[in-house]
């Protein structure tokens, strides 16, 4: 046990986490020349393309230091606020963390919130100043920022460049010298923390765990405490670049477990693995059932593909337990599913995976958060509203509550004004403002979650010219004055476009929605009125003028092939549209409300 | 029946809207004529001995060649093919070429070499339109050209363009009336179209010329249809109007899926299943034929491709799409699918079904005609399983 080090990396997106991880693997000889591939730990194509880590990963390195062999378990963490619970579980599996800070950009909000998580879990923090080789690097000032934040010695900060390899040896030395070895009792009953799981279509769900006490053996009868289910440990092993089966994973070590589980929902991140016959009395603290934050309807573009969509969603759920869905129907779109997501990124990922992995083109309706509604008749009975259509009639409605969050925004002093304006526009209330350094300010706001779900991130980036970072945590439900804004296309109400909006913003947003839809819905053979309404009251109207000309003048011998191919392409485009009444609505129009300010 | 199209890739100057293949340099004229004749000889068997019923010189500008040069090429066709007695032999001419020297002599020479149909690129009788489009002739030349041509030829088609920025509806009516005053039996009329990579596109992007508006084009199309209808013209294809007996036989073949052989750079050919096209480069075309090689690419049309093409071309014409022909050529699954798919458009008045001598025909209505491409693409098949 004294030769094991478990650590994670805390960093802001783009601060070089994945590159540094690659460099560590390289330096310790954990990858061969042939296996090299940028961002080794990001398995999913989507992760590599977007340059972010969606799932947590883990990898084991061996390192010879001062005549002794050490095992270093790196637990990579997801780099997006949508997955903050997974981050917290990864942190709980470690004794130390590398805090990577970009020497040019300094500390960002998400880094801070993850750092606090690490400090709460008593992790030893090793600050690394990355990208010191960049011309724009500002090492002295950023080192000061880090010293201020951690209260550490400036000498503790390791200057590094994951790109050129500067500082890698010093980082490895610090991991061994500064991070404590795991403490645990090999003689106690098995107690292991699940920090992630990965779906393997051939072998079932692979569970990643960290042994806290006891040990786990191949063939052992085990039990998951939160779900109460028992399994045989068919295979256990350590996570090198490829899995290495072992007879036993001992106290303090990190490994994988295969039990033949086919459904990812049985493996809950944060759950405790124990021995079925001799269970531990203590479940590891901090377990939560993951709760979806954002809801949206997902419908097949072609109504006939409903069953196919169901089967695709079920398969996705097998490897993404955080996805929840239930059947629903829409007057405009027919049969589909109301789905819950961890956040907007998660929603986009699901939509993209449906398209890539299942060739399913879907329509995603306007996303919303989960509201609580109370009627006048039963003012104490909570009605959960995950779909704007479920909101009771205005005449029967007593009140509505919406989820609030505590937002932390770190920005340069120059941008405090624009950031505040944005947050106030988003119905935010400032609760704190503190200068981390004379240049950098942390602003705290209470904000409705629904306002974050929409175009908040992009707007924040724009108003701060990219110099603002953002993180949030839930605050609970608060009463709000909300109304349902409906959209009528060609005089027909399209429920999939309805949204709950604060009374003060309803008029403005209704207008913008109509304008946006006018842009996004192609002209058709007739005039199409687009209206926004609250109840029976029309608050805005736009018209898409009829198409007057949809034909090319010439069609002779040399034009036919090219023209046919062009019209076939158009037809493919039309297949991605949804017919509502007699109007063809493109898939992206349903998400239009997210991009009202583009 | 078979038609031969011969592309003459030379022009006096570049019209701003044109995206056809041509060169303004006549330097390699001799080699080009040689190459065209070589291609005719090399491809003599592609017609499977069918009788040639139309020859069409298009371009480019065929009137850039002399009657003697054209005669050489025509001679090569006669050398290798059986040609119908009542052949339709069309040549596209531009007014500036026609009146440059002695128009009477030139027209008589055309007659002498067997040309019996002229397609004249008038485009407009208005100076400002001609300038905007960078045509090589002026308004006076347009009138003079038609006066002379009608002395010698009866079967004349005039090209007119509408939807030109600055062309008012009144001025457009006037253009139509002027053309009709010459008693010609055929008019081809096109909406000014902004093709990619043309000078016109460039000027529009720079804001020098206004973007032609669809509303103006649609209005002027309606004016055209009404005016020509009054004069007894049959609107037999979206952009083509003719007196009975004066429809272009050569062009009708394209819309009816008949075979054609295209000679010359960029020309397309179709043999009923395979479409081929020559390289769109004069030097490369000449070089290849000098080496005795055909500079062409080809693609074989699938059943779906042929079906889609028939819908696309058929809906533009007075003949429409024959449900019976779809049934016999593609099968009942296709005709049933088509009938089902067209229901909504029939209900909304864009398409109609007509019975003609026991045949069921799907056609665009007056309301649907100017939307024909969108309607066709709605009816397209993207894969065969759909039907």
Summarize the entry for a quick read.
The complex is a heterodimer of chains A (598) and B (387). Chain A is of the alpha+beta class and 598 residues long.
Features:
heterodimer, A: 8-stranded antiparallel sheet, 6-stranded mixed sheet, 25% helix, B: 387 residues, alpha/beta, TIM Barrel, Arc Repressor Mutant, subunit A
Q: How would you describe the shape of chain A?
A: globular
Helix tally of chain B? Answer: 16
The major pleated sheet of chain B works out as: 9 strands, mixed
Number of helical elements of chain A: 13
Major β-sheet profile of chain A: 8 strands, antiparallel
Q: Walk across the major sheet of chain A and give the strand order.
A: 11-10-16-7-8-15-12-13
Strand fraction band of chain B? Answer: 15-25%
Question: Runs of chain B with pLDDT <50, length 5+?
Answer: none
Q: What level of helicity do the residues of chain A show?
A: 10-25%
Describe the structure.
The complex is a heterodimer of chains A (598) and B (387). By secondary structure, chain A is an alpha+beta fold. Chain A has an 8-stranded antiparallel β-sheet with strand order 11-10-16-7-8-15-12-13. A 6-stranded mixed β-sheet of chain A has the order 2-3-1-4-5-6, sandwiched between helices. In chain A, strands 21, 22, 23, 24, 25 and 26 form a 6-stranded antiparallel β-sheet that branches. In chain A, helix 7 (306-319) packs across helix 8 (344-358). The termini of chain A are far apart. The model of chain A has no long low-confidence stretch (mean pLDDT 87). With 387 residues, chain B is α/β, with parallel strands linked by helices. Chain B folds into 2 domains: 2-255, Alpha-Beta Barrel (TIM Barrel), CATH 3.20.20.70; 303-379, Arc Repressor Mutant, subunit A (Orthogonal Bundle), CATH 1.10.10.920. Chain B is globular, with a radius of gyration of 21 Å. The chains are: A alpha+beta (598), B alpha/beta (387). The interface between A and B is large, with 26 and 47 residues.
């Amino acid at each position: 046990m004294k030769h094991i080090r478990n650590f994670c990396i805390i960093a802001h997106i783009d601060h070089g986490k994945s590159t540094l991880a690659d460099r560590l693997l390289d330096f310790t000889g954990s990858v061969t020349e042939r296996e090299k591939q940028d961002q080794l730990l990001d398995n999913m194509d989507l992760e590599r393309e977007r340059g972010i880590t969606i799932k947590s990963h883990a990898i084991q390195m061996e390192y010879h230091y001062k005549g002794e062999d050490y095992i270093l378990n790196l637990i990579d963490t997801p780099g997006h606020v949508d997955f903050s619970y997974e981050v917290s579980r990864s942190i709980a599996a470690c004794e130390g963390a590398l805090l990577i800070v970009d020497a040019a950009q300094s500390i960002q909000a998400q880094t801070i919130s993850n750092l606090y998580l690490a400090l709460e879990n008593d992790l030893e923090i090793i600050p690394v100043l990355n990208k010191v080789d960049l011309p724009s690097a500002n090492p002295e000032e950023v080192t000061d920022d880090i010293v201020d934040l951690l209260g550490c010695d400036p000498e503790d900060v390791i200057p590094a460049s994951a790109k050129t390899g500067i500082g890698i040896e010093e980082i490895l030395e610090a991991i061994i010298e500064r991070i404590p070895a795991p403490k645990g009792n090999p003689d106690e009953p098995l107690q292991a923390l699940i920090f992630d799981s990965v779906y393997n279509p051939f072998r079932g769900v692979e569970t990643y765990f960290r042994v806290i006490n006891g040990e786990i053996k191949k063939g052992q009868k085990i039990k998951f405490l939160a779900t109460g289910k028992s399994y045989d440990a068919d295979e256990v092993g350590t996570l090198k670049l490829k899995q290495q089966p072992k007879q036993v994973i001992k106290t303090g070590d990190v490994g994988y477990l295969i039990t033949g589980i086919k459904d990812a929902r049985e493996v809950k991140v944060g759950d405790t693995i124990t021995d079925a016959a001799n269970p531990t009395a203590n479940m590891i603290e901090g377990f939560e059932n993951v709760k979806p934050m954002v809801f949206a309807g997902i419908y097949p573009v072609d109504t006939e593909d409903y069953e196919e969509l169901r089967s695709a969603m079920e398969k996705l759920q097998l490897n993404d337990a955080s996805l929840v869905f239930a059947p629903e129907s829409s007057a405009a779109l027919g049969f589909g599913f109301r789905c819950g997501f961890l956040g907007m990124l998660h929603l986009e990922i699901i939509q993209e995976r449906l398209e890539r992995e299942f060739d399913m083109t879907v329509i995603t309706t306007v996303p919303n958060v989960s509201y609580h509604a109370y009627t006048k008749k039963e003012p104490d009975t909570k009605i959960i509203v995950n779909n704007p259509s479920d909101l009771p009639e205005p005449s029967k409605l007593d009140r509505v509550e919406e989820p609030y969050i505590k937002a932390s925004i770190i920005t340069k002093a120059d941008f405090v004004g624009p950031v505040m304006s944005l947050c106030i526009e988003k119905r935010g209330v400032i609760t704190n403002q503190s200068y981390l350094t004379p240049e950098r300010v942390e602003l705290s706001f209470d904000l409705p979650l629904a306002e974050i779900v929409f175009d908040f991130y992009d707007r924040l980036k724009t108003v701060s010219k990219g110099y603002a970072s953002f993180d949030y945590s839930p605050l609970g439900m608060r009463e709000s004055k909300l109304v349902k804004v409906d959209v009528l296309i060609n005089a027909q109400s399209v429920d999939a476009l309805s949204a709950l909006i604060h009374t003060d913003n309803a008029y403005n947003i209704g207008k913008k929605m109509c304008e946006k839809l006018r842009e996004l819905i192609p002209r058709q053979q007739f005039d199409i009125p687009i209206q926004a309404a609250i109840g029976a009251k029309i608050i805005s109207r736009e018209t898409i003028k009829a198409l007057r000309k949809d034909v090319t003048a010439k069609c002779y011998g040399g034009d036919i092939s090219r023209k046919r191919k062009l019209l076939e392409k158009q037809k493919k485009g039309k297949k991605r549209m949804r017919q509502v009444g007699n109007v063809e609505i493109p898939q992206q129009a349903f998400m239009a409300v997210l991009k009202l300010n583009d | 029946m078979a038609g031969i199209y011969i592309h003459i890739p030379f022009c006096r100057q570049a019209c701003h809207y044109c995206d056809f293949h041509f060169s303004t340099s006549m330097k390699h004229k001799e080699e080009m004529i040689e190459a065209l004749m070589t291609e005719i000889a090399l491809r003599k068997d592609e017609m499977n001995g069918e009788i040639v019923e139309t020859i069409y010189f298009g371009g480019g500008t065929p009137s850039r060649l002399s009657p003697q040069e054209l005669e050489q090429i025509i001679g090569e066709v006669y050398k290798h093919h059986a040609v119908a007695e009542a052949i339709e032999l069309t040549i596209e001419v531009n007014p500036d070429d026609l009146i440059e020297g002695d128009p009477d002599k030139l027209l008589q020479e055309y007659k002498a070499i067997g040309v019996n149909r002229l397609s004249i690129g008038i485009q407009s009788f208005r100076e400002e339109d001609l300038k905007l489009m960078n045509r090589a002739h002026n308004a006076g030349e347009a009138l003079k050209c038609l006066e002379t041509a009608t002395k010698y030829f009866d079967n004349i088609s005039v090209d007119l363009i509408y939807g030109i920025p600055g062309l008012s509806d009144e001025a457009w009516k006037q253009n139509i009336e002027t053309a009709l005053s010459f008693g010609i039996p055929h008019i081809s009329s096109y909406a000014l179209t902004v093709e990619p990579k043309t000078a016109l596109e460039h000027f529009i992007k720079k804001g020098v010329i206004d973007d032609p508006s669809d509303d103006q084009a649609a209005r002027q199309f309606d004016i055209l249809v009404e005016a020509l209808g009054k004069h007894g013209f049959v609107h037999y294809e979206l952009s083509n109007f003719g007196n009975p007996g004066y429809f272009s036989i050569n062009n009708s073949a394209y819309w009816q899926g008949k075979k054609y052989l295209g000679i010359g750079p960029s020309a397309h050919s179709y043999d009923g299943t395979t479409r081929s096209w020559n390289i769109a480069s004069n030097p490369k075309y000449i070089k290849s034929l000098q080496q005795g090689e055909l500079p062409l690419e080809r693609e074989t049309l699938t059943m779906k491709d042929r079906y889609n093409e028939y819908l696309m071309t058929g809906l533009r014409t007075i003949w429409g799409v024959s449900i019976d022909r779809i049934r016999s050529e593609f099968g009942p699954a296709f005709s049933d699918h088509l009938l089902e798919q067209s229901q909504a458009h029939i209900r909304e008045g864009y398409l109609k079904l007509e019975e003609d001598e026991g045949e069921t025909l799907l056609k665009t209505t007056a309301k649907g005609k100017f939307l024909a491409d969108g309607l066709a693409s709605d009816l397209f098949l993207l894969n065969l399983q759909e039907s």
